[in-house]
Amino acid sequence: MKGLVITIDALVAVAFLFIAALILYTQTFQPYAPNGIYLKQITLDALTVMEKTEILDSAISGNSSGMRRIIETTPELVCMQISILNSSDDQILIISKNDCGEYGQELQVVIMPTVRAGEFYTVKAESWYRKEST
User: Fold this and answer.
1) Residue 126 and residue 85 in contact, taking contact as beta carbons nearer than 8 Å
2) Domain containing 71 — which CATH number?
3) Residues of the chain with pLDDT under 70
4) Which of 43, 55, 107, 131 could form a disulfide with 50 if both were Cys (CB 3.0 to 4.6 A apart)?
């Protein structure tokens, strides 16, 4: 009878350990997020900052220094280019991050229509990972 109690006690202990390990695993598991989501989020965040701080208005008016400052503060491995087109699809401004070459393997494009002073503009933001030099 003692052997049966010890065996049941050991099985209960193993079950508790298994449940504890399962709980720890589910709490620490990080699901896979594609890199494109990171690039898209950085691009959307940059455009949101430009819009909320009226840097976009300044850029449309001809002062692009604030827009360049936002682009240059993105992470080092992320390249970005922002272009603004008027209602006739004429490009009125294009700004690229310094030291960024051609597109890498992944490219994210965000197009945001906006109206400023009664005029329709399209803001196109492209982001990609900097190509590593080999």
Assistant:
1) no
2) 3.30.1140
3) 28-35, 132-134
4) 55
